[in-house]
Amino acid sequence: MTMSETPAPSTTDARPAPQRSTTTDIALIAAFAALIAALTVIGGIPVGGAGVDITLQTFGVLLAGCVLGPVRGFLAVSVYLVLGAIGLPVFSGHSGGLAPFSGVSAGYLLSFPFAALLAGYLVKYVLGGLRTRAAFVFIAAMAGTVLNHVCGTLWMMHFLDVSLSQAIKFDAPFWVGDIIKSLVVALVAAEVHRAFPRLLARR
Amino acid sequence: MATIELEAASVAAPGADGDTVILEPTTLRLTEQRIGLIGANGSGKSTLVRLVNGLVTPTSGRVLVDGLDVARDGAAVRRRVGFCFTDPAAQLVMPTCVEDVELSLRRSVRDAGERHRQALAVLDRFGLGAQATLSVHSLSGGQRQLLALAGVLATDPSILVADEPTTLLDLANTRRVTETLFTLPQQLVVVTHDLDLARRCDRVLVVEDARVRFDGPAEAAVADYLSTVPL
Amino acid sequence: MNPSYLFGVYQPGTSPLHRAWIGAKVGGLAAFSLSVVLVRSVEAAFVFLAIAVLAAAVARIDLGLLLRSLRPALVAAVIFAGIQWLLYGPAKATETLVDLVALALAAIVVSSTSPVNAMLDSFIRWITPLRHVGVDPERVALTIGLAIQALPGTVALAVETRDAARARGVRHPRAFLTPFVIRVVARAQETGDALHARGIGDD
Ligand SMILES: Nc1ncnc2c1ncn2[C@@H]1O[C@H](COP(=O)(O)OP(=O)(O)OP(=O)(O)O)[C@@H](O)[C@H]1O
Ligand SMILES: [Mg+2]
What we know:
heterotrimer, B: alpha/beta, six-stranded mixed sheet, four-stranded antiparallel sheet, 9 helices, 35% helix, 28% strand, globular, C: mainly alpha, 8 helices, binds adenosine-5'-triphosphate, binds magnesium ion
């Protein structure tokens, strides 16, 4: 079974029909929830052999924010978390279910929607027309990354009952990967906005 | 039969350097049971048929379905007009076949049990009874397109618009879907690149460069279209 | 032909836990997890672990599958306990290790005794009161259903786009990610049109 061709973006994007927006929003939210899941499922780049993967999960989360904007981005990531919570193996390492929500890294997981919200807010309302420029989108994506790491670190601190400085050390190894991912998010999101200039049109 | 009327309907898309005309002002009155649209890629066929259920709203002029203005009574028009797209993957939205048909029925049939029964009956009618509880992804391309048709026709619209419903299908499935389309009691508006399919229509429009260049009986329309294509 | 990555953590069975009401299971898990995190003592940690093991035994979860689901949590637990041993000594390390395993085990028991569909139905039921603040449960259910439906197609699209990029000898991740995301957006917009044509946005 082959995937069918999708038409050139220009023909599907700017068609004038304002009232279509709700159904298109639903479709985009669902599509990005599936996109984050797909990237997490296929994109494991194993590092260190200790079962820790650099996955494209955070890439997908930030991308949802930067491409869809704050509200749809937040909802897409939330739907993704629900998919995992109800038992689909869409989290890193093909895991799913409720266990990741009560584990050491739950702070990262639970702050994903807010990271997308923040990045999306910056892209849509602060960058405006500059969102087709990767350098600016990178700043927005990094803001989301920072929020994600802050929440993840604070969770570890309370959860493991360790000092803040210790929790920061636990968090540190993941920075390099996440900065690189933010960079790629910026490049990709900027190109997507060039292809679909009305995706973040203010209604 | 239903009546579809375009009254000097035109479509333009705003662009960076002025508006692009996608459809010149077009006036048409379609009452035949089976209407075909043929023409080159990018000529404006999809735009024209999307006007019929309000997926595209006219920039100027009016589009009426049985006297209802598509721009103003969109919801009422969409209950009358079913729309089938080229790529079934894009229009099947629920995980299993029966759920997808149930989605179409959710407004007309309130009781969930009754809805399920009706959905199963619709699937049977399209030869998909055995696949009812299977994942949409386990179907072949032709079955998916039939399922998409089942979903659209479950609510019994009086018009079916189909935009290249067979373009992605192999020969056998093209025949199957075509036969299904041509046995429907509904009014059919079908965009196609399949000239054999076009020849079976009662009236065929040839679209070229954002306007209807020919409008008439199928054979003459196909001949007209062929004459525009250099060998 | 359901792809393997769609098989959730759920394992069919007839144990009392399989038949238990999902609300009770999830509520119980939440209470359990909270207690584990709040009660800080080594003795209590072992009691919690015993409870979780007992639950797993009652649910008769296949040992191999259990260990596989437990692996990510186990790896994290060992790493963090090891670090804590060095920093704070054996007592705290033991508590962390046992706590983390108990938490993960309890969550796995709930997820592996609750089918995805039932979890989804319960979730939709729980959010129904949110109707009063403007959340439409039917629309949420549609969005989640749509995302689940889109999952296999999106994974296939991702793999296909990645292979296409490889076939052209391009190695930069963006050469695969940009076309992939553009196709996802284009298809979502088509799906939005299809939903709209089916009258979904009209109610
Ligand atoms: N919103 C839009 N903004 C700008 N151009 C558009 C828009 N929608 C359609 N077009 C352009 O209008 C033309 C007609 O498009 P349409 O999709 O109706 O063609 P078509 O006849 O269906 O072609 P095909 O056979 O390839 O499906 C194309 O050149 C298309 O790129
Ligand atoms: Mg077309």
